[in-house]
Amino acid sequence: MKNVQVLLARRPVGPPVEEDFRTEESEVPFINEGEALLQNQFISLDAGFRNWMNEDAGDDVLPAMAIDAPVMGLVAATVVESKRPDLSVGQIIVGRTAWETYSIAGPGELMTPIQEKYGLSANYFLGVMGDTGLSAYFGLDRVASLQVGETVLISAAGGAVGNAAGQIAKAMGAGRVVGFAGSEEKCRWLEDKVGYDAAINYKAGHIERSINEACPDGIDVYFDNVGGELLEPVLNHINYQARIPFCGAVADYAAEHGSGPANLFRLVANCARL
């Protein structure tokens, strides 16, 4: 069997481009005791993994990706051969492996079996039933302690976590849900299809006025997927004891130098929590 892999050919500068990657074919390796062979069915392209493409990005969570090695990513896969006692042939699992046709699940590597009782395709467990949906839920529930009737503002609202966060906030009883997006098309989709009460095109200018119009009663919860300079105008509109679950930093993943707000004292003045 042949294994098609997408390798990291060089360190991206800014947003990744096609030339940062290359494909390679190799033989599928034999597995050793304690390992399982996975055939990847779906691969998730998560913005957060851009961070680990940088040379100095290794941390306590994940190592930096190596040049000329398969690109790291989350997958939904079928177990096709197993010498690992906790994984059985035919099981469908979600785990962190790589952009390739076949992967090996080594001893102790976390692989989560999908529960068939939900009757959903495996790709859902890389989205709303997986990391993105869980990030949205726990950010709103455990971190923000969202209360019925509150106003929620969400950045990168058109992304995987953002659109899930908007729907979950509605289901939890938020009084008003507003999202940031980068185009008028995305804003209309959020309002017409996802169920947002309003959406703000942050690239259109007049952002302070737009926030004031969309959130006339102020902001109780700001679910931040972006970080960077967008946080500054938001802080000017937060309510007393506002909560800001910080889920991601899309603005900085591909930036050479990070950016941030100059008005962090607004957190102190409003007894807010970030």
What is the approximate shape? globular
Number of domains: 2
Alpha-beta content class: alpha/beta
Q: Point out poorly predicted stretches.
A: none
Mean pLDDT: 93
Number of helices: 7
What percent of residues are in strands?
Answer: 25-35%
Computed over alpha carbons, the radius of gyration is 21 Å
Strand order, biggest sheet?
6-3-4-5-7
The CATH superfamily of the largest domain appears as NAD(P)-binding Rossmann-like Domain
Total strand segments: 12
Q: How many strands, which pairing sense, and closed or not: the largest β-sheet?
A: 5 strands, antiparallel
Distance between the termini: 50 Å
Order of helices and strands: EEEEEEEHEHEHEHEHEHH
CATH architecture descriptor name of the largest domain = 3-Layer(aba) Sandwich
CATH class of the largest domain: Alpha Beta
Instruction: Classify the oligomer.
Output: single chain
Fold-level CATH name of the largest domain: Rossmann fold
Question: Helicity range of the residues?
Answer: 10-25%
